[in-house]
Amino acid sequence: MSREPVGTSDVVVVGGGAAGLSLAHRLVETGAATVTVVEPPDGPARPAERTWCYWDQGDGDFEEAVTATWPLLRVHGPDGGPLTVDPAPWRYRMVRSAAFERLVHARLARAPGGRLLRATAGTVRDVPGGAEVRCTAQDGRTLTLRSRYVFDSRPLRALPPARTQLLQHFRGWFVRTRGDRFDPAVADLMDFRVPQPCHGLAFGYVLPLAPDRALVEYTEFSRTPLTTEAYEAALGHYAREVLRLGEFGVESAEQGVIPMTDARFPRRAGSAVFRIGTAGGATRPATGYTFAAVQRHSRAIAAALHDGRATVPAPHGRRALAMDAVLLRALDTGRIDGPEFFTGLFRRTPAPRLLRFLDGSTSLREEWGIGLRTPVGPMLRTALEVPFLPRRTHPAPGTGENHR
User: Fold this and answer.
1) pLDDT tens readout for residues 270-280
2) Sorted alphabetically, which Pfam families does this protein's record hold (predicted)?
């Protein structure tokens, strides 16, 4: 099998998911670098369609790919009581991966510095003057791409050691009901009217797409995923007994696992090789949200390269990660009641401030105020304990669809 060098660009991005395409788009748009994106060809190596959700202000860069937005958010407490909040100027948004890929692919095709290569990436390594990616083309040829920098978004084979590791695992149905059952203006972020597991917490999640269509999901924060049969049973109970949807059909389903871990993700895999996306620590440990962090991280990387700095900033600040480590430990030990904790956050904190807190953009003073509205004793005890806990290897969560 021949190996062919391929003339390439300033940057090679490995992987065409949210992280890879967002970074490629940002680099080309700002003129920070020319880019080649390496994506697997059509077939089993390409992931199934995924759903990414986030909150944002204004229209954003990918408005054309947004499937739906919701101006209002709702939480159902464990007592069944609903709490609806208006997070203006924030809005909750859904992007489907297929629409996002089409949009960014079209932009890369129009840009003089953008290029898309359908091939299976293999070895990524440093070489004199930069880095190289060896990949296999659709016709079996082995291609070698060389560039100044490589940004690798492929999932890690194993997560780094952590003090606490939970999994956010879920299964969702895109349903169509016989009659109108949903309010398209309201997204149900957490509905705790579902049976709670012995360890961790569980909630329903409803994103209306029309009065008779929605994504209905069952989610757990716990140590171990369920079987597909168990998710189906939980979803059936939620849709029929809690939401009382009546007659409905399931148009499609999604299932996935997102790591919630205080592990330290190395952002560098070589002198000229960097990790991005979940592999680079972009997933917020306490919530599982990734898409918004990927956008901020992409902007920061593009700015660094534009200014001639060969560094990749952290996707999350140290203070946010420290708070997340405490919350994960408190949930894992059972020192706090998860449903009561999250319901209390929404009940006692103005919604715009809470979303900025979850987004990692609040001030120290604001975070102190939010902290005083949580169970102070258990959280303080946990905060004092966490720095002395050993980091250890946890079982790999397996592959999943990043849904946030």
Assistant:
1) 999 999 999 99
2) Lycopene_cycl
Q: Which residues pair with 39 in a beta bridge?
A: 118
Q: Is 33 helix (H, G, I), strand (E, B) or coil?
A: coil
Residue 336 lies in a domain: no
Q: Identify the domain containing residue 30 by its residue range.
A: 3-69+92-159+265-306
95/215 Cα distance (integer angstroms): 12
The domain spanning residue 97 has which CATH number?
3.50.50.60
Interval 118-149: pLDDT, tens: 999 999 999 999 999 999 988 889 999 999 99
Hey, what are 227's tokens?
Answer: 């079987």
Domain assignment present for 130: yes
Strand order from edge to edge, sheet including 11-14: 3-6, 142-147, 130-137, 114-127, 35-39, 11-14, 149-152, 273-275
Point out which residues pair with 3 in neighbouring strands: 142
Residue in the structure block whose two tokens are 């620590």 = 281
Does some domain include residue 123? Answer: yes
Q: Which two tokens stand for residue 213?
A: 């269509």
Radius of gyration (Cα) for the chain, nearest Å? 22
Number of domains forming the structure of the chain: 1
